[in-house]
């Protein structure tokens, strides 16, 4: 009898390093990431915080599979990641909705290559419209909805293919404070409902502590992990909880106290043809 293989959403990053060519760096290369070791158990929510230029977004790009030129290994369920794949979804700071598609059509883009019948796709889209609370706006165009609603569409699009890992790159960074707080609550609710593995990059320490099981604090020049803080607080969380405030202030101390991590960005590497590279 053949043995049943059970897949998980466990993510392992081992000895990860990334360099960019740079005329401004000694030796012609800029080390952006160095010796990143991170284990994200299945179904966990992990936030990554750090100063500008510490390689947070570069790390997410590598996990997504947009760049295969790096040192070390990235594994999902014990298998090395090679290129992009439907098992990894992403939500960016800019919702990147197609203006010529309505809400449900934008969400359906995430199912473009899914092996589902048209009826199954419609059912899946409707399920995720409800998940993000957009019933009644299925036929609205991107210009007719608010920025917060557009980010809900982006989250639904990232989840509709039922990825094993959802990557979030500053998903609420462009929103006003009130909308941001509401969507943090929504994301917490969605994660509890879906229980998939989530990896969030943010510069907002309070957001990181509010959402995550663990907060990874990175330091720059080159980007590496300074420490990992466990957030052992029940959900739903409350920002006025003294335990929450203590954890938030503990993480903030890495950036605010004398001798804290530098906040300035390092020199921007220059690629072929003079293009400046961002991470």
From TrEMBL:
Source organism superkingdom: Bacteria
SMART domains named in the record: AAA
Keywords: ATP-binding, Cell membrane, Membrane, Nucleotide-binding, Transport
Single GO MF descriptor: ATP hydrolysis activity
Keyword Ribonucleoprotein attributed: no
Domain ABC transporter, chain residue ranges per copy: 11-247
Pfam families according to UniProt: ABC_tran
CDD domains assigned to the protein according to its UniProt record, in alphabetical order: ABC_NrtD_SsuB_transporters (cd03293)
InterPro entries found in the cross-reference section: AAA+_ATPase (IPR003593), ABC_transporter-like_ATP-bd (IPR003439), ABC_transporter-like_CS (IPR017871), ABC_transporter_ATP-bind (IPR050166), P-loop_NTPase (IPR027417)
PANTHER family membership: ALIPHATIC SULFONATES IMPORT ATP-BINDING PROTEIN SSUB (PTHR42788:SF13), TAURINE IMPORT ATP-BINDING PROTEIN-RELATED (PTHR42788)
Family, as annotated: Belongs to the ABC transporter superfamily.
Protein name: Sulfonate transport system ATP-binding protein
């Amino acid at each position: 009898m053949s043995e049943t293989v059970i897949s998980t959403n466990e993510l392992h990053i081992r000895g990860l390093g990334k360099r960019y060519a740079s005329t401004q760096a000694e030796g012609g290369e800029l080390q952006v990431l160095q010796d990143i070791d991170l284990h994200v158990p299945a179904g966990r929510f992990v936030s990554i915080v750090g100063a500008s230029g510490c390689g947070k977004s570069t790390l997410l790009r590598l996990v997504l599979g947009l760049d295969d030129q790096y040192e070390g290994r990235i594994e999902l369920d014990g298998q090395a990641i090679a290129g992009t794949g439907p098992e990894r979804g992403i939500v960016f700071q800019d919702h990147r909705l197609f203006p010529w598609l309505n809400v449900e059509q934008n969400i359906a883009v995430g199912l473009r290559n899914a092996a589902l019948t048209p009826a199954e796709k419609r059912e899946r889209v409707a399920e995720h419209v409800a998940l993000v609370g957009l019933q009644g706006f299925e036929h609205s165009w991107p210009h007719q909805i608010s920025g917060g609603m557009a980010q809900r569409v982006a989250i639904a699009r990232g989840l509709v293919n039922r990825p094993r890992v959802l990557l979030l790159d500053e998903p609420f960074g462009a929103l006003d404070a009130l909308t941001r707080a509401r969507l943090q609550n929504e994301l917490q609710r969605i994660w509890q409902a879906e229980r998939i593995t989530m990896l969030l990059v943010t510069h907002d320490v309070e957001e990181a502590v509010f959402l995550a099981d663990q907060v990874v604090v990175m330091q720059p020049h080159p980007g590496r992990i300074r420490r990992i803080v466990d957030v052992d607080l029940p959900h739903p969380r409350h920002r006025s909880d003294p335990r929450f405030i203590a954890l938030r202030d503990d993480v903030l101390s890495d950036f605010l106290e004398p001798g804290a991590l530098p906040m300035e960005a390092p020199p921007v590497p220059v690629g072929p043809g003079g293009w400046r590279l961002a991470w």
